[in-house]
Amino acid sequence: MNERAREQWGSRLGFTLAAVGSAVGLGNIWRFSYASGENGGAVFLLLYLLAVLVMGLPIMIAEFTIGRRAQSDVIGAFHKLAPGRPWVLGGYLGLLAAFVILSYYAVIAGWIAKYLVGYLSGELMMVPAGEYGSHFTQFTAERLEPLGWSFLFMALTTGIVAFGVKRGIEQANKILMPLLALLLVGMAAFSLSLPGAAAGVRFLFRPDWSVLARAEVYLAAVGQAFFSLSLGMGALLTYSSYLPDNVKLPREAVKVAFFDTLLALVAGLAIFPAVFSFGVDPAAGATLVFIVLPGIFEAMPAGMALGLAFFALLSAAALSSAVSLLEVVVAYAMRRWRWTRLQSGLIFGFVIFLLGIPSSLGYGLLAELQLFGRDILSGLDLLASQIVLPVGGLIFALFIGWGWQRNVALQASDFGRGWLGRAWLLMLRYLTPLMLTLVLLHALRAL
Ligand code: PHE
After folding, report:
1. Four-CA torsion 343, 344, 345, 349, nearest 10 degrees
2. How much distance in Å is there from the Cα of 209 to the middle of ligand 1?
3. Is the whole model's pTM more than 0.85, yes or no?
4. Residues with beta carbon inside 6 Å of ligand 1?
5. Which atom of ligand 1 is nearest to 317's Cα?
6. What b-and-e string marks burial along 90-103, b requiring 16 or more CB atoms within 10 Å of the CB?
7. Digit-coded pLDDT (tens) for 214-254
């Protein structure tokens, strides 16, 4: 495909929504809720905010800058901006991360689709109270059914990507994002009105400093920031490669980070007040959303409608993120082999579905198999969020900080000559890499 034929977003808002859509996903709702539940609530939140400021934002602006300047995919971008230099390894790592993350993301999204349909038909309301745990374990232990749902989800994702940047990705996000925001705010309002809801709010906002002594809390916060902001693997780099020059990148990055964090908080306000109101342990782990919440919905008036709304919201969030993961691969395939969108989407959508099979079977047939002492899906998630994404982010940061000319970087990022741009470069040169290296060393030791 020659450069003139390269697609572009239809509007700036379209890009913002798509980038927010990429960032806001299972990470904000499913992952954020259990990670903060396990890591001490408010303190985790503070560390997370810190990670967003010193690593997330500077790296996001770096990805936007690289993508828009190069007008190419994660790998093409480095070939173009730094030909013959090793920075392109960051691109390959990003591509690898897209495969790994989407493969297990689609498995979880498949469970969500199943729950959504379960609330549509009312079947999930029939499960006797207290048996949601075994209901979930039985379902995920099956061989074929969960894979069928995951296949369906990948087919939807591929369908959206195949329609293109403007008519597929942008249009889908214009529908999915407002829907998601509406459902989430409605749920939070309801959850906050329950008796005993205040304990949930306290949990989210009152810090228990003693967790600071645990190293894994820092790792979890950094991993959460990378995962939730879609950083370190070129998803936002690819999206920004469809941007024209007149969109101001730092402002877009602030918007994306702001909305992503806001949505995680609102999701926390939708989940924890209900969890505390029903006297459930907030550290229920990854199953919070699939076991604890359905039990709560069942006990509520209008629980079926709430369950339906909640899983519709999760599906919308998952779909818009999955689209951005697949686009990383599709953009690469279209340039590298000159395939069409449809061809690239179908081939790699299917390959990624196949790669997800072990993650799905990890709860049944392959339950014996462990990755870093966890089931396959959780092991891959740990590897991706705490190692691969931070290493990718480190490479992007170092590329802008050290591998590119200062003036080019300042101009390409739209910072120009002001002090903000200088601060951004200083962070990418020293602070961000230093913090990332410390975190990575810890993460490697903890594996
Ligand atoms: N940010 C997405 C979420 O929170 C996940 C994601 C990670 C998407 C990396 C793209 C790239 O669910």
Report:
1. 110
2. 29
3. yes
4. 22-23, 25-28, 101, 227-228, 230, 233, 235, 321, 324-325
5. 12
6. bbebbbebbbbbbb
7. 888 888 888 889 899 999 999 999 999 999 999 999 999 99
